[in-house]
Amino acid sequence: MERLRVQGITEPSVLAAINEVPRHIFVDEAMAQRAYEDTSLPIGFNQTLSQPFIVALMTQILLEVKPRVVLEVGTGSGYQTAVLSKFCDQLYSVERISDLVKKARQRLRTLSIDNATIYHSDGFEGLERHAPYDGILVTAAPKEIPQVLLDQLADGGRIVAPVGLDLNQDLKIIDKSENGLVERNVEKVRFVPLVSGKT
Ligand code: SAH
User: Fold this and answer.
1) Which of 15, 78, 115, 134 is most buried, taking the most CB atoms under 10 A from its CB?
2) What is the value of pTM for the model shown?
3) Would you say the CB of residue 50 lies under 6 angstroms from ligand 1?
């Protein structure tokens, strides 16, 4: 916790949420003993659970716009979903790999999280059904932000997403207002790529 604070996670409610959500249930048993290290961990299918600092940072940035309805692209293990669910009324999360969808749903059920819904679908399509979203958090990196996500963002809304190719990704903040989009870079990051299609 102290390390997260030193790294710039200043929002007490985010620190509390990271503290509350048991990270070990989001990784396979073989990895469970490493679950509390500040590092990314494998979750199968060549995918990774982000390090707690990145989860905390992205959550903290998104919260600044006080989003009520949120879309997450890339459920993965469901860990970020669980943390984020504490801060919004409704959270919708899309994941392209069906096996990860099933496991993540189970974990959220175990934690009695009932305001988060996971869909097996391709994030390149966004999720029209519940749009517009006050916040969109993307946890896999596209080369550029898909237009459909910008379209599904509400006025006053914010996207937090890694953007770019493998070794050169920027964590970006994109704010939408009546005057258009304002984009900022936060820092260099490394996420798995956003891949199109379901499996
Ligand atoms: N936030 C996750 C980490 C996700 S890793 C966690 O806390 O565990 C990125 C995830 O995005 C992977 O599970 C990957 O399958 C998923 N993904 C990649 N491309 C996608 C797409 N087009 N639509 C939906 N999910 C996608």
Assistant:
1) 78
2) 0.96
3) yes
